[in-house]
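A reminder from the course coordinator: this example appears on the midterm review sheet, so study it carefully.

Given structure:
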């Protein structure tokens, strides 16, 4: 365990020891995020470092710098896309040269979207022999607390990034993907207006994290395409085989499934109101008096009562497209409980599964990557073993791998 304040770390260790006495033996290391030498001394002692410090644009640079410098794999739970872009620009080449994996967005931002889309595309390639032209993540019923740290990160983006950068984030689905060589296609942000999603049979309204998750999903597609091209150049791919990628003009849509146009309209109105509060300084100052402060979040009781489910839909890129259906979810609070477990499984994947990751020719081996492009099926397996659901339910009227006949996706269905 590492942090700035040894006394606070000792208190956390003591609390953990009451759950598991083995935690008594966990070493405590101290470092200040703004002191690179102290950070470097900690990072040099481990194979993988996990970070939950935020806002990452304010406190996260030294740790990533030192991870790359020391040759240590790194993963975090940021949703700060402009900071992720700068990380790719600054560290991707150096990390790739050193064999270091730097993974951002390894929590509820953006593992369900990223790994869920990978699962759908992998199924289509493996079982149906085709790619995916459009993938949908439809956020279903959930119960979770609100994080003061997430709010602080959002405010930091709005107050510290330039207007041109914010405009680029809001308008460009390929904001990260082009950094990995993927040309811009026809994909567009989901927008704020209600939309009827035909393949899923439901109305949907805007999901506030779509602007983060969609960029990661497209970045994964770019990294898979780059890896396939690399395999072709090295002669490792079979002649005439394209290699693994989602689709040539792959599009991604993410929203909240509402079941009706009226509810979707209410979600739009609520989202617009939240945006106005965050964008107008006086309203933002007033709202922050009543919302959790950094370091504050839901109680343990609230976290235990949490849950979430996303319905997943994909259209194949065939002349006569087929509809593939699936879902992912967890019976735990998404922002705290699920996120911490997702980050932990990414860390264990990097620390313990190196041989399996290296053996999969589809996966990127080093650089500033996404969870799916770096860990793909190995991480999916670990997440399922940890209690998460990531399942394919079927293809139109065909049977899925579990032998069950697919049924229409029902908005609001319980996990």
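Designed residues:
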């Amino acid at each position: 365990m590492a942090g700035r304040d040894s006394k606070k770390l000792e208190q956390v260790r003591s609390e953990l020891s009451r759950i598991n006495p083995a935690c008594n033996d966990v070493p405590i290391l101290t470092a200040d995020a703004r002191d690179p030498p102290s950070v470097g001394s900690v990072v040099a002692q481990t194979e993988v470092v996990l970070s939950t410090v935020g806002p990452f644009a304010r406190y996260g640079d030294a740790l990533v710098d030192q991870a790359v410098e020391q040759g240590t794999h790194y993963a975090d739970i940021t949703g700060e896309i402009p900071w992720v872009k700068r990380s790719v620009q600054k560290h991707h080449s150096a990390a790739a040269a050193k064999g270091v994996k730097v993974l951002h967005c390894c929590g509820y931002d953006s593992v369900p979207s990223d790994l869920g889309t990978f699962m759908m595309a992998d199924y289509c390639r493996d079982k149906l022999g085709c790619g995916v032209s459009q993938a949908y993540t439809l956020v279903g019923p959930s119960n979770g607390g609100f994080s003061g740290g997430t709010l602080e990160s959002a405010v930091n983006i709005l107050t510290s990034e330039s207007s041109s950068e914010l405009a680029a984030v809001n308008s460009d689905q390929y904001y990260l993907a082009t950094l990995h060589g993927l040309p811009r296609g026809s994909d567009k942000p989901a927008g704020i207006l209600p939309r009827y999603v035909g393949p899923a049979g439901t109305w949907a309204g805007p999901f506030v994290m779509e602007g983060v998750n969609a960029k990661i999903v497209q970045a994964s597609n770019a990294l898979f395409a780059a890896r396939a091209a690399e395999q072709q150049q090295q002669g490792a791919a079979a002649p005439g085989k394209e290699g693994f990628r989602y689709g040539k003009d792959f599009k991604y849509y993410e929203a909240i499934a509402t079941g009706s146009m009226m509810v979707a309209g209410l979600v739009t109105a609520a989202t617009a109101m939240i945006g106005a509060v965050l964008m107008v300084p006086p309203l933002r100052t007033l709202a922050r008096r009543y919302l959790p402060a950094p370091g504050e979040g839901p109680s343990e009781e609230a976290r235990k009562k949490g849950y979430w489910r996303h319905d997943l839909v994909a259209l194949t890129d065939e002349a006569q497209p087929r509809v593939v259906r699936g879902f992912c979810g967890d019976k735990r609070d998404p922002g705290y409980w699920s996120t911490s477990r997702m980050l932990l499984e990414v860390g264990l994947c990097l620390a313990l599964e190196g041989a399996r990751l290296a053996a999969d020719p589809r996966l990127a081996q080093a650089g500033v990557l996404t969870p799916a492009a770096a860990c793909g099926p190995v991480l999916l397996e670990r997440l399922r073993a940890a209690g998460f659901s990531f399942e394919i339910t079927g293809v139109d009227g065909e049977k899925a791998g579990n032998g069950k006949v697919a049924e229409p996706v029902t908005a609001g269905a319980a996990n």
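Residues 131 and 244 are 9 Å apart (CA to CA). The longest strand covers residues 132-143.
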